[in-house]
Design a protein that fits this description.
By secondary structure, this protein is of the alpha+beta class. The protein is about 50% helix and about 20% strand. The protein contains six helices and five strands. A five-stranded antiparallel sheet has the order 1-2-3-4-5, with no helix packed on it. A hairpin with a 4-residue loop joins strand 4 and strand 5. Helix 4 packs across helix 5. The chain is elongated, with a radius of gyration of 22 Å.
């Protein structure tokens, strides 16, 4: 399902606390009888509250109307939550990138490129060249071939994020946001789905499982 970024006063988006796409209820916080510059959004799915601080007002003749606000809590940025099976060292870089993304898409892109290198190592590659690693994973059918084209963009973005190149600053905002999705997708395809299939396989009776393993081994010998 498409990830919808949290946005001030938007009625529905993916909750920054639970990650679920759900309805949000907005309330301005008060201090005694006075209104503050803070709002909370209440998720209808997890009942969790996110805290927002107003950064811009529209002024009319009668009152100030909040126009924009920044998300203060939870402090995990506005990117999709990392997949549950994401390796810990990859998740650390992913979360840090999410936290700085709104302020520095260029810095977030560099962190995400590092996270992708680490992820490739977890999937059996050497992690020294994202381009080669992604192509190797696609050749092994661990990832679909289309990921190669997407990863080429990620690799270029990451290089330019560290070494200023020809990309315009405004390009980083769009491309870096897609890198979060790419890393989550690779975790899902390369780690989560094989784990789920293996768990399903382990539930089959021992007899049919042994027969399938023998048949697979025999097929490999015949293909040598």
């Amino acid at each position: 399902m498409k990830f919808t970024l949290p946005e001030f006063r938007k009625g529905r988006f993916n909750c920054p606390l639970c990650g679920t796409y759900s309805h949000m209820t907005w309330n301005q916080l008060n201090n005694a009888s006075a209104c503050t510059n803070y709002y909370e959004s209440l998720c209808s799915y997890c009942d969790g509250n996110s805290l927002w601080r107003v950064t811009e007002y529209n002024k009319d003749s009668l009152r100030k109307v909040a126009k924009n606000a920044e998300l203060l809590f939870p402090d995990n940025g506005i990117a999709a939550l990392p997949e549950d099976d994401m390796p810990h060292d990859v998740k650390i870089d992913y979360i840090e990138a999410a936290r700085i993304f709104s302020k520095s898409p260029r810095g977030a892109a560099a962190l995400l490129r590092l996270a992708l290198q680490k992820l490739c190592k977890h999937l059996g590659e050497d992690g020294s060249n994202i381009n080669d690693d992604i192509r190797s994973l696609a050749a092994k059918n661990i990832l679909p071939p289309m990921v190669v084209k997407v990863a080429d963009t990620v690799r270029i973005t990451g290089n330019n994020a560290v070494h200023p190149g020809t990309m315009k600053d405004e390009d980083f905002d769009f491309v870096a946001s897609k890198m979060f999705d790419l890393i989550n997708f690779i975790v899902k395809k390369g780690i989560s789905e094989p784990k789920e299939l293996n768990a399903l396989y382990e539930l089959t009776p021992e007899g049919p499982r042994k027969s399938a393993e023998d048949k697979d081994a025999k097929s490999k010998v015949n293909n040598l």
